[in-house]
Amino acid sequence: MEKVMLEQQTIQEFLSALSSKAPVPGGGGASAIAGAIGNGLGQMVGNLTIGKKKYAQVEEEILQLLNKMEALQKELVSLANQDAEVFAPLAAAYGLPTRTEEEKVYKTKIMEENLLAASQVPIQIMEKSIEMLSAFAILAEKGSRMAVSDVGVGVQLIRSALLSAVMNVYINTKSMKNREKAQELNQYADELVANGTKQADQIYDTVLKALK
Amino acid sequence: MEKVMLEQQTIQEFLSALSSKAPVPGGGGASAIAGAIGNGLGQMVGNLTIGKKKYAQVEEEILQLLNKMEALQKELVSLANQDAEVFAPLAAAYGLPTRTEEEKVYKTKIMEENLLAASQVPIQIMEKSIEMLSAFAILAEKGSRMAVSDVGVGVQLIRSALLSAVMNVYINTKSMKNREKAQELNQYADELVANGTKQADQIYDTVLKALK
């Protein structure tokens, strides 16, 4: 099968593939792309801030932030592709035979490995979402006032990436035999959700106050 | 200027255009696309539900829902394009001269018209988001259990479309001279936010209970 990088698809192709019953792209890829779109708005706000006399005092800080957000953008697009890549071996593992004791043991082992890999991609999407929110906290405070509504839009999209990605952590840890590892991953994901939504809602409230 | 339909852009092109300081695409287009991605996951869940013996009893209802979601998908992509289209005349209106009293009166009139148009596109994105959430409430209850996490992902993306689009209502009504009309639009948008977030959070909680 030819590997098509998700970012090379048109939006229409992506939406069609998503809507179909094909397993990928699915929720994991969608959450990473939502995060990337949110991050893109942050980059826009940064680009509207630099080179302006009014914001000369924050120019250096915003330039550094833009570098960071550019790197985050690449990582999110890569994670959207990785989410599709970890699905195929997991689907194959679900189909392994269980006629003998050896086959059962082997299937359990392979399933565990693939469920772990499939949990770790959304966890990385969540970690990147938290990093993006830190950048947005700075943009909300120091970015161009003209584009403050776009800070609010970006924050909501990143918040949705966080709360979307966690779905794909839960659905994979749910099938893991190693309950200790599963609980550990869920607990870490829950902490990221709690911290991230709190930060996102604070930034959004700041933007709302500037707008209304 | 050649008109490029947003859905014909690759995801990479869209992200690059969004990140740049070019005025469009901006927050309005991003919110419509986030909604379309969320809706696409709902269509996927519907497509995974139909044709299955287990879900034969809901087959007809889900088929109708799929038709509705397909129409919503087209409307959201169209709204993403409309958001870009209403921006150009608004930007031009901001640049109108105000040397004479006549020019001032004319500018105010044209500004009002364009601010109203620019407020109405995000309001439509919000209305479509509410319609999508109604479809998701049915999917959460009756759609394939296998894809329940994707219902959760879709709901978060639509919630973000709603809370993103409202930013673009506020930023345009803020500049309107007709404060009565501005208040009326804000109040309607606030109601959509209140109803929509309540419904989205309820659906997400249902999904969480099924997953954890």
Task: Give a concise summary.
2 copies of one chain form a homodimer. With 212 residues, chain A is mostly helical.
Beta-strand percentage of chain A? under 5%
Biggest sheet architecture of chain A: none
Mean pLDDT of chain A: 96
- Report the span from N to C terminus of chain A: 52 Å
Q: What is the helix/strand order of chain A?
A: HHHHHH
Low-pLDDT stretches of chain A are: none
Assembly category = homodimer
The greatest interface between two protein chains, and residues involved on each side, is:
A-B, 54 and 54 residues
DSSP helix fraction of chain A: over 70%
- Give the overall form of chain A: elongated
The whole-angstrom Rg of chain A is 20 Å
Question: What does this protein structure show overall?
Answer:
Two copies of one chain form a homodimer. With 212 residues, chain A is mainly alpha-helical. The first copy, chain A, contains six helices and no strands. The termini of chain A are far apart. The model of chain A has no long low-confidence stretch (mean pLDDT 96). Chains A and B meet through helix 1, helix 2, helix 3, helix 5 and helix 6 of A and helix 1, helix 2, helix 3, helix 5 and helix 6 of B.
